[in-house]
Design a protein that fits this description.
With 452 residues, this protein is α+β, with helices and mostly antiparallel strands. Among the domains are: 158 residues, Hedgehog/Intein (Hint) domain (Endonuclease - Pi-scei, Chain A, domain 1); 82 residues, DNA Binding (I), subunit A (Orthogonal Bundle), CATH 1.10.30. The chain contains eleven helices and 24 strands. Strands 2, 7, 8, 9 and 18 form a five-stranded antiparallel sheet that branches. A three-stranded antiparallel sheet has the order 1-24-21. Helix 1 packs across helix 11 and helix 10 packs across helix 11. The radius of gyration is 26 Å and the shape is globular.
Length: 452
């Protein structure tokens, strides 16, 4: 962009420019790539790895929509800045006596999350809030609100999830609104589900393997098309099971059409849901600020910031909703610590000590999982029973980052001073960087493996 030039092949001049940018720590050009990893790791590795979440960042001023349940007042909606949430969560709240206290209530926070199937908002539990470092901040502006975020932050649009930096003027983004829902008397939920099942059964006969969207004309495989009622069910229930009233529509057109059909629904039931509004301008860079990110528990990994629906960068398999698996890490490299703090090394232990340690770790994990299963059999909630599981338990998660963040992770964790286990993950991640962006990786190594 600096030279207003484009190239389909890497030239020596391009490689030289990449080396110049790396040496002089011009980091922003390395923030426009995107990596998404699926990671399987023991819990103690996750504790180190999740600190390197990057890309999906918001400034401290971002307003997060929180919901609380009050005994008398019922459900209360309030906004709180992301910076205040982070401070209260990690540093505590000052009381009238000047003391700083870490309050459990500041960590039991529920935020609005969007159920992407129903397009209605629900409550989701925050797992943690993180500081992500100083980043370039871009502004997205609609008629009703403005969102300031990093270029890599994922925003829900009428076409699905997209990077904030890739959006353009005129794109439709999801914001909070009021959706009209049909009353149970008008269209019972059981009937609505039955119509949905019947409609799904018609897919094979009504949509060709590669077919055309009847709205935009785009051709797409059957998996990317849905059957839509031309005359909405809320308008004419008699045509709900009429095959001539079905047409193939791509997912983006179906989402837009469903949003517009909210006007046909009876207004006796209203609830918080998404609506799509147009961006008034393309994203523009406005500042560099300290940024933060929120981790949400499943099943919906999004939240509302400044009125827009945004994603978070780190999604872990949730032990609240599914049973954990009996898979545990038993280290092959068992070591002992030699030397004083700050100047010690790790050396292998003798064979008998190694085998004894491995046996202890494995037996302890087995006993813990047996206790976990006994509690589940007695009806204890998964979120409670999982507390007995050891740090060696394996979990899975998505990790999203840009090349600049990946290099920073590798420089810290693929290093002699890092813990052995996290080094294995950092080395694997770096191998992807080397394969996909070889010139950038060469410049990274030539610069002493210090990210820009």
């Amino acid at each position: 962009m600096s030279f207003n030039q484009a190239s389909d092949e890497l030239t020596e001049r391009d490689a030289g420019l990449i080396g110049f940018l790396m040496r002089n720590r011009h980091g922003s050009p390395f923030e426009h790539g995107y990596f998404r990893f699926i990671v399987k790791a023991p819990l103690f590795v996750v504790r180190e790895h999740h600190r390197h979440r990057a890309g999906h960042c918001l400034p401290a001023s971002a307003q997060i929509w929180l919901e609380t349940i009050a005994p008398r007042a019922g459900r209360l909606l309030r906004r709180r800045s992301l910076g205040e949430i982070f401070t209260n969560w990690h540093e505590g709240v000052r009381d009238k006596l000047g003391r700083t206290r870490l309050l459990p209530s500041c960590r039991r926070l529920s935020a609005r999350v969007l159920n992407e199937e129903t397009q209605l908002f629900e409550l989701g539990r925050m797992s943690d809030v993180f500081r992500s470092g100083v980043k370039e901040i871009f502004e997205l502006r609609t008629e009703t609100t403005r969102l300031r975020c990093s270029a890599d932050h994922r925003v829900l649009t009428a076409e699905g999830w997209a990077r904030a930096g890739d959006l353009r003027r005129g794109d439709f983004v999801a914001v909070c609104g009021i959706r009209a829902t049909q009353s149970g008397e008008h269209l019972p939920p059981s009937l609505r589900r039955g119509i949905g099942v019947w409609t799904s059964m018609q897919r094979a006969s009504r949509i060709r393997p590669v077919d055309e969207c009847t709205v935009c004309g785009k051709r797409a495989p059957r998996a990317e098309l849905v059957l839509d009622h031309v005359v909405p069910v809320v308008v004419d229930l008699k045509r709900a099971l009429d095959t001539s009233n079905l047409a193939a529509v791509c997912t983006s057109c179906h989402r837009k059409k469903t949003n517009l059909e909210q006007g046909y629904a009876r207004r006796d039931n209203k609830t918080a849901g998404s609506k799509y509004v147009r961006l008034m301008a393309s994203p523009r860079r406005v500042s560099e600020e300290e940024t933060y990110d929120i981790e949400m528990e499943g099943p919906h990994h999004n939240f509302v910031a400044d009125g827009l629906v945004v994603h978070n960068s780190y999604n872990e398999w949730s032990g609240r909703y599914s049973k954990m698996e009996p898979e545990f890490y038993v280290p092959d490299f068992v070591r002992t610590q030699v030397g004083k703090p700050g100047a010690y090394t790790f050396e292998p232990v003798d064979d008998s000590t190694r085998e004894a340690a491995r046996r202890e770790i494995e037996e302890n994990a087995t006993r813990a999982f047996q206790a976990y299963e006994r509690m589940l059999e007695r009806g204890v909630a998964k979120e409670v029973a999982r507390t007995v599981l050891p740090l060696s338990t394996y979990t899975k998660y998505f990790w999203s980052c840009n090349p600049r963040s990946l290099m920073h992770f590798c420089s810290l964790r693929n290093h002699d001073d890092a813990q052995y286990e996290i080094r294995q993950y950092a080395a694997a991640a770096e191998s992807f960087l080397e394969r996909v962006m070889p010139a950038t990786h060469d410049a990274f190594v030539a610069n002493g493996r210090i990210g820009p």
